[in-house]
Amino acid sequence: MSNSSTNHRFTHQSRNIIAITIAAIVFACGTLLTTATADEKAEALHDFVGAKKCKMCHKSKQAGSQYSIWLDSKHSKAFETLASEDGLKAAKEAGVEDPQKSGKCLKCHSTAYNFTETMATNIAVKKSTGKARLTVEESVGCESCHFAGGDYKKKKIMKDHDLAVSKGLNPEPKKMCLNCHNDESPFWDTTRYKLADGKTAGFDFDQAWDKIKHLRPKATDTK
Ligand code: HEC
Ligand code: HEC
Ligand code: HEC
Ligand code: HEC
Question: Which of 52, 173, 178, 214 could form a disulfide with 66 if both were Cys (CB 3.0 to 4.6 A apart)?
Fold first, then answer.
């Protein structure tokens, strides 16, 4: 009797162990799957679409004239600048043959290189012509600071800040400046900006933003 009961308990126990093991395996797989999806998400590349795509909704005065403000800023001419007399001279000093073709300059003078020394691969193509929507000629475009817009540019998404951010919009564009405005620039000049305390600096966010700010009319200047 007692033997059979032990046996019975044993069988019951091993069934439990099997059940627990299966549950553990399922759980482990689930965890692995979740981790893989999270990683994929982090690495998912949104396509660059170019400033012309943003223009259709961000050019009117009511919207805040972002496109024309950008067009009037130095950022929209950063590619052209590379071929100027100063540009060619700086290139020569850096051992660069053609600054408009070198990642050493284009990493900061274009959006298409996305802060690296090579052309980004996540660039949308115009179906009708097969041509890239973003080229180095665009210089430092909207997407340098706001990130690639392929998935957040729809009106419904743009109106919902959190949704737009989940589709790739940079929640903190102000933090982008120093990626390019730093002493790696051949024209870095620590006396370029005069600060309130009498000191100088190569970059000062408040003053620099003042030169390129493009807020919506109703929004207050948050800096
Ligand atoms: C189809 C129209 C449309 C297009 C295209 C579009 N936007 Fe927008 N965008 C909007 C609207 C609408 C808002 C919200 C304005 C509001 O709430 O007052 C907005 C808001 C924004 C904001 C502020 C969002 C926030 O929550 O902080 C940024 C930044 C922005 N757009 C950048 C871009 C960039 C860069 C592109 C191009 C890659 C682009 N937009 C393309 C319509 C558009
Ligand atoms: C780390 C980013 C960065 C790199 C790399 C870079 N630049 Fe620039 N460049 C800038 C910034 C930012 C400015 C604006 C001036 C400043 O604050 O340095 C600028 C300004 C310039 C100007 C305008 C100068 C003026 O006085 O108005 C020229 C010309 C230029 N760069 C050429 C080049 C060339 C040629 C290369 C490659 C050899 C290069 N840059 C590499 C960021 C960079
Ligand atoms: C050099 C970086 C840079 C570039 C280039 C740039 N922006 Fe911005 N943009 C910013 C920063 C910084 C803000 C301010 C965000 C804040 O106040 O928190 C901003 C704010 C905005 C806003 C929100 C305005 C508001 O009132 O809240 C819109 C819309 C916008 N940008 C659209 C554009 C478009 C469209 C382009 C290209 C035509 C562009 N931006 C180019 C850095 C940039
Ligand atoms: C992708 C690189 C890049 C980023 C990011 C960037 N800039 Fe620039 N910026 C440049 C380059 C390159 C120039 C010089 C362009 C030229 O002279 O043709 C420049 C020039 C300027 C100038 C004119 C020169 C000066 O210092 O008066 C201002 C102002 C400026 N940027 C402000 C900003 C602000 C503010 C931010 C962040 C919100 C920012 N930039 C982000 C690359 C960048």
Answer: 214
Contact 81, 110 (CB under 8 A): no
Residue-wise pLDDT tens digits, 111-129: 999 999 999 999 999 999 9
Angle at the Cα of 208 from the Cα atoms of 204 and 212, rounded to 5 degrees: 160
CATH topology of domain 51-171: Flavocytochrome C3; Chain A, domain 2 (1.10.1130)
What is the distance between the alpha carbons of residues 218 and 29, in angstroms, rounded to a whole number? 50
**CB-based contacts of 150: which residues, under 8 Å, 6+ apart?**
46, 47, 48, 49, 122, 124, 168
- Best of 82, 115, 181 to mutate for ligand 4, by most ligand atoms within 8 A of CB? 181
pTM score, whole prediction: 0.88
Give the span between the Cα atoms of 171 and 100, in whole angstroms: 30
9-59 pLDDT, tens digit each: 444 454 554 454 445 444 444 444 444 444 444 457 999 999 999 999 999
Give the start-to-end residue ranges of the domains of the chain.
Answer: 1-44, 51-171
